[in-house]
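glucan endo-1,3-beta-D-glucosidase: structure, please.
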Amino acid sequence: MTVQAFTGTYGVNYGRIADNIPPPSNVVTLLKAAKIKNIRIYDADHSVLTAFKGSGIEIVIGVGNEFLKDMSVGEDGAMNWIKENVEPFLPGTQIRGIAVGNEILGSTDVELWEALLPAAKNIYSALDRLDLTDKIQVQTAHSEAVFGSSYPPSAGAFREDVLPYMKPLLQFFSQIGSPFYINAYPFLAYKSDPSHIDINYALFRSNSGTYDAKTNLHYDNMFDAMVDAAYAALEKAGFAKMEVIVSETGWASKGDPDEAGATVKNARTYNYNLRKRLLKKKGTPYRPKISAKAYVFALFNENLKPGPTSERNFGLFKADGSISYNIGFTGLVSSSPSLPPLSLRVRVRTSIS
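Here you go.
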């Protein structure tokens, strides 16, 4: 039986690399008010899993990259992890998936590349022994670095050095019915080449779009193009029937001077239009019958994240629980956003449609 870890089309990543964000119990209140039913966390924090008990919110938990080598050696490590971090919280907390590592293939640590598949298999075997494989999906999320090419979308293909590791992994996920998860950020693409990428194309705003001559398909936004590039790569690798789900996407509301496009207005535009697009439950040009699904990064601005300023400013909400900008959600505390509200039900053309 194939388990679905993502029952809607819109989810959020609940990152917690911060020392000033609301406690998990308040986060449950926030998510319920926003009617967000699918979330991902990057660990298996017990305070979070306890707070989500009985909430009805479906959660994907994460096995940190630092655990993969130990888990790849034998099933005991995986079984111990599940008995400690999963079993005690079932069935009250709706753990629907276990993400094995994050952005492993394409990283610089080839030892982790080698550990990923055996770790995933051991976690699945442990779940199987506990009769949980019909309730919890085993998965992993990839970065855009796994692709050798991605433009135009039909040219999507995995890197030659990644393929020997990717193909067996896809074979396993195909056998157990798991989708392909990709972290896709039009923001990062635009930031890296602002002079050649139309920001309207990145933000789902009106633009001339791009044409893929091989498939004779037209793209009016980069998000769809990134998803279809993943579908093309999967097809070339022999997995044309595998579903693609976006495990992370988002737009920073603040950045360093050299981070083009990182503004409140752009972040609001991207996240408003993305949500509107996902709630329509429509497919992409290359896979029109498969509803696009995505988890937005991230729930909160995370003040302790390293790296450029943008890394600490991806949140839909500020650390105090107020909205970063208005895309139709209600914060834990009232806020005075710099931009007026917009209803997702408005059908007339608006300034950010």
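Notes: Confidence is low (pLDDT under 50) at residues 340-353.
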